[in-house]
Amino acid sequence: MRHLVTQFDTAVTRHVVELPASLHPFFLAVTALGSPVATMTVGAVVAGWGYFHANLRLAYSGAFVWLTLGVGSIIKLIVARARPNTAYAAHLLFDTNSFPSGHTSGSTIAYGLLAYLAWHLLPQPYSTIVVVLLLLLIALIGISRIYLGAHFPSDVIAGWLLGAVALCIVIFVLRPLT
């Protein structure tokens, strides 16, 4: 199984890093939007908005962004997968493990929650436009982590899955808008 994951990671990484070098500044900017600071800020704003508008379900939903990042950090400690051997990964501020991608899981829950709220609270066609842009941002953040050399593709997929599971719990269990 590990061999198949390695083959998959190698094949996908080869294609992603073949993207033009001129995209490097773009992917640096995109990856910054997926940073824990950015996604935790989204979670805090949603939680604060819910709290001050007496919607505890919405407040808990915002807090779920933080919980998702915490669960991802625990998984990183358990799996203890090293990051790719790249110049970008070697110069990261914090020496953390690779699996799952925190940028990807955090952006999936944070921007997915914003997409859910936009879909229900904004009028058409604005809600559709915002949802499409946020979903595109989530995808680009994951791709940026591979392009920059911070993660293997399987780390990114695991991050998307973790974030998607958390988002489903928020939408179908917490139901922030009920």
Could you explain how this protein is built, in words?
By secondary structure, this protein is mostly helical. The chain has 8 helices and no strands. The chain has helices at 2-17, 24-33, 36-52, 56-79, 87-90, 102-121, 126-148, 153-174. Helix 3 (36-52) runs antiparallel to helix 4 (56-79), helix 3 (36-52) packs parallel to helix 6 (102-121) and helix 6 (102-121) runs parallel beside helix 8 (153-174). The protein is globular.
In short:
With 178 residues, the chain is mainly alpha-helical. It is 76% helix and 0% strand.
Keywords:
0% strand, 178 residues
Please describe the topology of this protein.
Elements: H1 2-17, H2 24-33, H3 36-52, H4 56-79, H5 87-90, H6 102-121, H7 126-148, H8 153-174
Helix pairs in contact: 2-7, 3-4, 3-6, 4-6, 4-8, 6-7, 6-8, 7-8
* Amino-to-carboxy terminus distance: 43 Å
SS element count, helices: 8
- The share of residues in extended strands comes to under 5%
Tell me the total number of β-strands. Answer: 0
The largest β sheet comes out as: none
Question: Taking all residues together, what is the mean pLDDT?
Answer: 94
Helix/strand class: mainly alpha
Weakly predicted, low-confidence segments: none
Give the helices and strands as they follow along the chain: HHHHHHHH
Describe the oligomeric state of these chains in a short phrase.
Answer: single chain
